[in-house]
Specification:
Length: 298
């Protein structure tokens, strides 16, 4: 999501990579490339070692860190503190939201240095200011999402799908669902369905689809009809103005913001679905098995 925001707003080629794999492939570190380390705790061993590898090879690193004065924060050349407050649960939620907002602010800064227009900058800032009230609106629908989570909790496997801006949202949804409900959940790009995953669609495998109102809405809806034709249950996280036609699906409408910022709001219902699915199964939502809040060893 962060790389997408920077690429879209600042028009700087950007990519995201797992810190756990970064240093093992002997990466080429370029002095004119900015590296951004992201961590809630600021103590994650993989991320800290990746930062040290970049600096050893002459690269510049900034951090998006929640815990002030943590090891990664001290190691970086600069950065943004998230100020999300303490987060007890292993599965990060509010820190993730603040990470996305931090990346939006970083993208704005880089964009203004380049060629982002003043009007676009003001548009994004206005969108950021609307987010708190829109989050309140989303949280007010929690009871409806709790009911919807029941059938998803009963499924042994689920798909989460999204396209372009929606794909990072789908990945977050699948990650949260598998982390705390212990159900098998996989995220795919919607356009990849026909290249294999469509073979697994059945009445026993629900699909949670991210369908924002953007330039790809029609293509996304067409893909959902392919799932419905194979009797796959559908939950569509979307915007009120999206026309699903005759599609048989449960829809979750999310407040519309600026297109670039929509993923921040689209993520929240997926986190709530995971929470209530785990609760229905009688699981410890805050402390899922085999996982730690801060991974301080490799």
């Amino acid at each position: 999501l962060g790389a997408s925001l920077i690429e879209e707003l600042a028009r700087i080629p950007s990519d995201a990579e797992a810190a756990s794999e970064f240093r093992y492939r002997n990466p080429v570190i370029e002095t004119d490339t900015l590296y951004v380390a992201v961590s809630q705790s600021g103590e994650t061993a993989d991320t800290l070692l990746a930062v040290q590898e970049i600096k050893r090879k002459g690269g510049r690193v900034i951090g998006l860190i929640n815990v002030v004065g943590s090891a990664i924060a001290r190691e970086c050349d600069g950065g943004i503190y998230l100020h999300a407050g303490p987060e007890v649960a292993v599965a990060s939620t509010k820190a993730l939201t603040n990470m996305a907002i931090g990346f939006a602010l970083l993208a704005l800064q880089l964009g203004r240095v380049r060629d982002l227009s003043i009007s676009d900058g003001k548009r994004i800032i206005a969108g950021l200011r609307r987010i708190p009230a829109q989050l309140d609106h989303l949280l007010a629908t929690e009871e409806d999402l709790a009911v919807l989570a029941g059938p998803l909790a009963d499924a042994e496997s689920l798909f989460f799908i999204g396209r372009v801006r929606g794909f990072p949202v789908a990945r977050e949804g699948a990650q949260k669902f598998k982390e705390i409900s212990y159900r098998h959940a996989e995220a795919y790009q919607t356009s990849e369905l026909k290249h294999g995953p469509l073979a697994l669609i059945s009445q026993q495998v629900p699909t949670v689809a991210i369908v924002p109102l953007d330039e790809l809405t029609d293509r996304n809806v067409a893909a959902l009809h392919e799932i419905a034709a194979r009797k796959g249950p559908l939950v569509v996280v979307t915007h009120a103005d999206v026309d699903l036609g005759s599609l048989e699906a449960v829809r979750v409408d999310v407040p519309k913001n600026e297109t670039e910022l929509d993923p921040i709001l689209l993520t929240v219902p997926l986190q709530l679905l995971a929470y209530h699915a785990a609760s229905k199964l009688g699981l410890d939502v805050d402390k899922p098995r085999n996982l730690a809040k801060s991974v301080t060893v490799e």
